[in-house]
Amino acid sequence: MFDIHTQLFEGQDISFGPIDYEKDAEIESNWTHDAEFMRLMELKPVRPMSPALVRKQYEKIEKEIEESHSLYYFTIHAKADDRLIGKAVLEWIEWTNGNGWIRLGIGSADDRRKGYGSQALQMLLRFAFAELNLFRVTAMVPAYNEAMISLLKKFSFVEEVRRREAIERDGRFWDLLTFGLLRSEWESQNASAREEKP
Amino acid sequence: MNDLFRGELVRLTNENIDVLSESEIRWQRDTEFHRLADGDPAELHSEKKIKEWLEKRMSDDNPNRFNFSIRTLADDRLIGFIGLYLPFLHGCDAWVGIGIGERHYWGKGYGTDAMRVILRYAFTELNLHRVSLALHEYNTRAFRSYEKAGFRSEGRVKQDQIREGKRTDTLFMGILRSEWKDAFVEGAL
After folding, report:
1. ipTM value of the model?
2. How big is chain B by its Cα radius of gyration, in Å?
3. Do B160 and A173 touch (CB under 8 A)?
4. B157 — contact with chain A (CB < 8 Å)?
5. A112-160 pLDDT, tens per residue?
6. B92 part of a folded domain
7. Confidence bin at B185 (pLDDT 50/70/90)
């Protein structure tokens, strides 16, 4: 399915890019004013941010990328108009053990349910397993994020940990789930996809 | 009112850095201890670096961290550390980490006792809803200790660590305030 010629940052309808301080900050500022999206993307408390504050956060992220060597951060763009639609993150990488944590989100409700998230996850997994050569990846998801849970299951992620009542939202306690995927599982997934589409 | 920092075998303290660093300098050489307590590669640091790091760890500047030393009641010996980390200040969950650096005190209930003391602190002083922890699957002594302190298994992250060439799992455990309260009222803790 993939080989050395297959571009890492180009998908069918989306592409991965770096942070663009000028263009992205305005759009991302809008996302931070959308509590529903923020609660799906982040575990930390929702908090609206101005474009200036978002830019400051970008600086923090790029500083961490440089200093920690354990963070990869991609912006997701719709290829049709090169518009910023989301972000895909690989973080907390332990190089000696070959593991890392993934996180991704599509910012605007209009861009969801169009397969962008699925393509982004496929690209992020290929980056993690075929470029960084990780042994496994993990995703932490609150139980109320049903879209993410079904996406992870579609990619054969297995629920491994259920931290009971670890997050409180709207006066209710929710479990925090941890899903894992081993490289071997990802590889056999790709092998079977190859057999289906000769 | 109970002494919040005092258990049956140990008490939790905050120590001067000179006192702590003497222990930490010795403990960092015990790689078995390190591999039981930690996931990062073992390292050796200078006294200067250790003191700087302890200064940060034990200070009250960071409102998300509550770190203590563990001292025995019988002979007032500094034997380890224990601490709570709150990922979000107003969150309902904290992570607990513990290490008994003095190996002659392993397997004798000191860690379990310290854990009971810090759970009481987490639930009656910080008013948390739950406490979480993670451990290596090969640390069976810790697993039994955590069970005794009231933690329940919540799952395992498969094969995420390599030790001596073998893949091993990380186990996750948690205790809810309600579970702790039930056990506490019944006197089990």
Report:
1. 0.92
2. 16
3. no
4. yes
5. 999 999 999 999 999 999 999 999 999 999 999 999 999 999 999 999 9
6. yes
7. low
- Report the candidate in A132, A112, A109, A115 with the shortest Cα–Cα distance to residue A186: A132
What's the one-letter identity of residue B111?
Answer: G
Would the CB atoms of A45 and B160 count as touching at under 8 Å?
A: no
Q: Which of A39, A135, A164, A168 to mutate to test the interface with B (most CBs of B within 10 A)?
A: A164
CATH class assigned to A14-196: alpha beta
Considering only the beta carbons, identify the residue of A43, A98, A163 that sits closest to B154.
Answer: A163
Report the run of H or E that residue A169 belongs to, with start and end.
strand A158-169
- Read off the CATH number of the domain in which B88 is found: 3.40.630.30
Q: Retrieve residue A25's tokens.
A: 């900050």
Structural domain range at position B34? 10-185
State which H helix or E strand residue A40 sits in: helix A35-41
Residue B173 in any domain: the answer is yes
Determine the distance in angstroms separating the CA of B155 from the nearest CA of chain A, rounded to an integer.
Answer: 4
Global pTM exceeds 0.80 = yes
Q: Which of B41, B88, B132 sits opposite A96 (nearest CB)?
A: B41
Q: Please name the member of A44, A138, A178 whose beta carbon is closest to the beta carbon of B88.
A: A44
Report the pLDDT value the prediction gives residue B24, as an integer from 0 to 100: 96
pLDDT(B8) > 90 = yes
Instruction: Tell me, yes or no, whether B40 lies in a domain.
Output: yes
**Per-residue pLDDT for A2 more than 80?**
no
Residues recorded for chain A: 198
